[in-house]
Amino acid sequence: MTDTYMQEQAEALAAKLKLNDGKNGYVEPTAEGFAVYTRRKWPGKQITSWDGLPVEWHENVGSNKAANR
Which domain of life is it from (predicted)? Predict the structure, then answer.
C-alpha cells in the first residue's frame, strides 16, 4: 500500500464520518490502519475497521488537535 492510497482511504473515511469540515475531528493514516480524532464522544456505533484495516478512536481531544493544527 502506498502513502497516497492510505491518505485517500483516510479522506474517504473522514467523509463517511462527516469529519471533513476541519473543526470536529479528522482521520489520520497510521502504520497499522487509521486513527480517528474527534472533539466529542462519538454518537452511535464506531467503525472498527476500514478497508480491512483497524480504526483506533481518540475521543474528546482538544479543539486544536481535532482541527489537526
Answer: Bacteria
Say what the pLDDT of residue 27 is. Answer: 95
What is the torsional sign of CA 8, 54, 24, 43?
A: positive
Residues β-bridged to residue 36: 27, 57
Tell me the pTM.
0.88
Radius of gyration of the chain (CA): 11
Q: Which strand ranges, in their side-by-side order, compose the sheet holding 25-29? A: 25-29, 34-38, 53-58, 49-50
Q: What is the grid cell recorded at 68?
A: 489537526
Q: Answer whether residue 67 is part of any domain.
A: no
Structural domain range at position 33: 1-58
* CA distance linking residue 64 with residue 46, whole number of Å: 22
Residue reference for cell 464520518: 17
